[in-house]
Structure formats: C-alpha cells, structure tokens
Amino acid sequence: MSAFSFFIGTMHGLLQVVPAVRAWLDSIGSPYGGPGHMIDPLAHAHINLVGGVTILGMAITYYMLPKITGKAMYSQRMAEHSFWWTTIGVSAFYIALLIFGFIEGNLWLTDPAQVPAIHRFYGPVISIAASILAVGFWVYLANVVMTLKDVYKKGT
Ligand code: HEM
User: Fold this and answer.
1) Which residue among 6, 38, 46 is best mutated to probe the pocket of ligand 1, counting the most ligand atoms within 8 A of its Cβ?
2) What is the pLDDT of residues 115-153, one digit of tens each?
3) Where do the structural domains in the chain lie, given as residue ranges?
4) 23, 94, 99, 133: which one has the fewest Cβ atoms less than 10 Å from its Cβ?
C-alpha cells in the first residue's frame, strides 16, 4: 500500500506541474485556498505523507519492534485493524479531496454561485474520511504502547 500510494502521489505531483494543469489549479486558488487547495497541497501531501510514509512506518514498526524487544506485538488483530482503517481512511480522504476539488473548481470558474450548494457536503464527507484515518493511527499507537508496556513490565 505504501508503494502504491507513492506511485499515485508522484503521478499527482507530476501532473500538477504540467503547465495547463498548473494554470487551472492556480485559477481555482491553489495552494492558498479554495478548491485548488484541496488538490494541491492537501490531497498530494496526504497520499504521500500518510499513504506512503506513515503506512511504511507502521509496517517497519510491526516488523522491527518484535525483533528489537524479543516480544511479539501486543495484538495481530489491532495490527490488521490499523492497516485497514488507515488504508480506507487515506484513500477516502484523497478521493474526497479530488472529487470536491474538481467539482467545486469547475463551478468556481463557470458558475461560482453554485459552489456553496456542493461545499456544504465537504465538511461532513471529509470529517468521516479523516475520522476513519484517525482511528487507524490511534489503533497503531495503542498496539505499540501495549507492546512496550508488556516489554517493560517483564523488564527485558
Ligand atoms: C488523521 C490524520 C490526519 C488528518 C485528519 C489530517 C488532516 C489535515 C487537514 C484537514 C489539513 C488542512 C488544513 C488546511 O486546510 O490548511 C492538513 C494539512 C496538512 N497535513 Fe494532515 N492530516 C492527517 C495526518 C497527517 C500526517 C500524518 C502528515 C505528515 C506525515 C500530514 C501532513 C500534512 C501537511 C504537510 C499539511 C499542510 C498542507 C499545506 O497546506 O501545505 N497530515 N491535514
């Protein structure tokens, strides 16, 4: 998932510097605000930094922590949960930012009065995606803390 996220994130990064795409993103507010901000930098930052870096960090933690401590992770089930909540969360977060960015961006240029009618759905949708993503982070954190708690309780 990390490698796939980096592929999507780098393709996104490449596309957003193509002059015609760059001009369109700038015309809808990127990187400072408006629908353009959703696509660049928000979607680009999170598919790379969360989908790529953070998920790789989780994988390395789950692989190395048992080797370092000599003790299995506290819960394999929590490891699975942290993978799926983070993966579904970051995918939903990225896709929602792109969809709202594109729809509102085009309205921004063609019929700005229509933007609020779409934007009122942005808050609830992005909050649900962000909350799913956050659950993934917190389950991962809990699994690491519980593993270390066991390690230090046994005084390895
Ligand atoms: C539950 C996890 C996360 C959520 C819900 C989240 C949400 C957000 C939101 C809503 C913004 C935009 C604020 C604005 O409108 O300017 C933002 C900005 C940003 N986030 Fe996250 N984020 C999360 C995790 C992360 C992580 C783990 C990283 C880095 C490893 C990260 C890197 C960034 C960066 C670099 C920006 C600034 C983009 C910019 O405006 O230049 N985020 N994040």
Assistant:
1) 46
2) 999 999 999 999 999 999 999 999 999 999 999 997 877
3) 2-153
4) 23
Size of the chain, expressed as the number of residues it contains: 156
CA 4 / ligand 1 centre spacing (Å):
19
Q: What is the pTM of this model?
A: 0.92
Atom of ligand 1 nearest to the CA of 137: 1
CB 50 within 8 A of CB 1: no
Residue nearest to atom 24 of ligand 1 (CA): 50
State the pLDDT confidence band at 156, using cuts at 50, 70 and 90: low
In this prediction, residue 29 carries a pLDDT of 95
Collapsing DSSP to helix, strand or coil, 74 comes out as: coil
Task: Give, as one character, the DSSP assignment of residue 32.
Answer: T
